[in-house]
Amino acid sequence: MNILDGRHLALLAGLPLQYTKVMNDATPISAKAVTGAVSIGHTVCPHDCPSACALEVDITADGRIGRVRGANANTYTAGVICAKVARYSERIYHPGRLLTPKRRKGAKGAGDWQEINWENALDEIADAFVKAEAKHGAEAIWPYFYAGTMGQVQRDSIERLRHAKKYSGFFGSICTNMAWTGYVMGTGALRGPDPREMAKADVVVIWGTNAVATQVNVMTHAIRARKERGAKIVVVDIYDNPTMKQADMKLIVRPGTDAALACAVMHIAFRDGYADRAYMAKFADDPSGLEAHLASKTPQWAADITGLSVEEIEAFAKLVGTTQKSFFRLGYGFARQRNGAVAMHAALSIATVLGSWQYEGGGAFHNNGDIFRLNKAELMGTAYADPNVRQLDQSQIGRVLTGDAEALRYGGPVTALLIQNTNPVNVCPEQRLVKQGFMRDDLFVAVHEQFMTETAELADIVLPATMFLEHDDIYRAGGQNHILLGPKLVEPPETVRTNLFVIEELAKRLGVSDMPGFGMTEREHIDLILNPGGWGDFDSLAEEKWIDAQPPFEVAHYLEGFGYADGKFRFSPDWQSGPSPNKPPKNVPVMGPVAELPKFPDQVDVIEMADAEHPFRLATSPARNFLNSTFAETKTSVQKEGRPELMICPADAQRLNIADGDVVQIGNGRGQLRIHAKIVEGAKAGVLIAEGLWPNKAHLDGEGINVLTGGDAVAPYGGAAFHDNKVWLKTF
């Protein structure tokens, strides 16, 4: 998940995000409860999820963890966490965990390793970087990271080394860009109603997220609304997933057609008098222009595009149109389609047409990234960042490493990588290009990891990393409203090291350790991150466990105006140069077919449309027991998921004479793979679903589903369209 840092503070200028401290009834971290021989530690789930759940962890007398559960006192976590984190002892004590540094002996990928000590490993990495810089310049080194931990210190310190050394920049595009951009294009800010208000809604619309699998706390509050208020739960998604099974109203749309549904709902709102014209006159830029544009966006028009019936669209529009407290919970599914930014903006616009923002339990929420005011300038070394250094796109690592001139920004090759917190050989698009790049003889790769991932298997040096219970860090929850402390609770194995340690030691060897931000402990960094925002320091946060940073109702619901200077919501955003929390730097050219994006909310087919040669659309949706490639190494998660499978609707299976469990082949111009078929109700004809993310080696041909996904830049500001693929399907 991408992050907000000093580059994005302009979006916050002038926002009255004052913090009104409320009573925190949680037991201080410094006062651990003790039950018999077990003490209870308090921390935060570090993984790449919007929830950042507050955790309580049983710690035995011998310093090992036992049961992990959600903190009841945290009003968002509310005692509920996902099953994969609840069984975390299975991961931290896994027999396959990396425990010693390793140097490659044989050919890349051959699995022939030699154990070395930390000093020699770090010396060799630094020496490789110095040689790469001497031959091709500093931009030949590319520090590459992502959200394997969402801890601010352990994740983002790598940026300080990058800026100090003028190594190639990192444009983190892979997870959030289309969703964040579409939301902020409308609101002007990345914040929204208190997500706990879902429990006060009369309709909760869960759109573009399989929350049961990926954000379980969304369901906690939605189901509370149902139990206490009789609220209806509506789910909009592309197949009948576990969240859909909890819905009172199921809307299964074809992939990439969400905007058509949104437009028809707004058409009906204007037609039937649900639109709040007085609200729009005060808070929106061009309601009359939107109404005129939507005149042709009828339910029948949308039905033809989405695969829904006219009756389903009419019923949905009436439900939200006649319910003031309609809460639209918009997810990251919008960040997986090439038209995702437009679709997010269209779905978001419904709340403005209806005036839902005015009511507690109403409005539209995606991410609260703007509310936290964390100061990471020192942590990330932004003071010495050079805007002229090229920025390479995370999602195009395959193209970067195989010498694509455009991906390299027409500069020299990347010949050295330092990788933390991510597994690109498994998770990135255009997997064949990625692996081809990693196999280059002239590419040096150092990977700091917890397990021997498929990326680590292709490295020259592998370093063992701590897990979140073994170091101090601080977290902020984009999907909720808390800043949370994750202190060290147990001792790590003697031979593993933190991310911060690796960055500090490399800085010493590379001659930049005297620059601002280096030489500090995790706790010192946390103090600097918190202080300027008025949040206190490490010790005060240790007393409170978390801080409720939710702004006042009027600010969260934009009742004092939206985030633009004129306070107006944008029905007609500037797709060419409008705001986004993760906008590409000026030295990156325009991304994708921006000129095709519409003036007002509309269906725009810049997606991979099915054709005669590729009659199916493929989505690579998340699995319940994995989180990206994390947890794919734990025994229970693998047992529960079974094996890689391709979901096919009964009509398509019958037409192609495919039985459940058959091996089929799918492919497109990027590659092909074999996979077992799973016949399921609740998918549209012509739509295939591969839940993952399974390791490549778990597939029949040793190549994973990302062989089929594309890395072309998405309009307007980049991203990776993982669910947007046209494919053929063959039987044997």
From TrEMBL:
Gene3D superfamilies: 2.40.40.20, 3.40.50.740, ADC-like domains, Dimethylsulfoxide Reductase, domain 2, Formate dehydrogenase/DMSO reductase. InterPro entries: Asp_de-COase-like_dom_sf (IPR009010), MoPterin_dinucl-bd_dom (IPR006657), Mopterin_OxRdtase (IPR006656), Mopterin_OxRdtase_4Fe-4S_dom (IPR006963), Prok_Mopterin_Oxidored (IPR050612), YoaE_C (IPR037920). Keywords: Iron, Iron-sulfur, Metal-binding. It holds the Pfam family Molybdopterin. GO terms for molecular function: iron-sulfur cluster binding; metal ion binding; molybdopterin cofactor binding; oxidoreductase activity. The keyword Iron-sulfur applies. Residues 38-96 form the 4Fe-4S Mo/W bis-MGD-type domain. Belongs to the prokaryotic molybdopterin-containing oxidoreductase family. This is Dehydrogenase. It comes from Agrobacterium bohemicum.
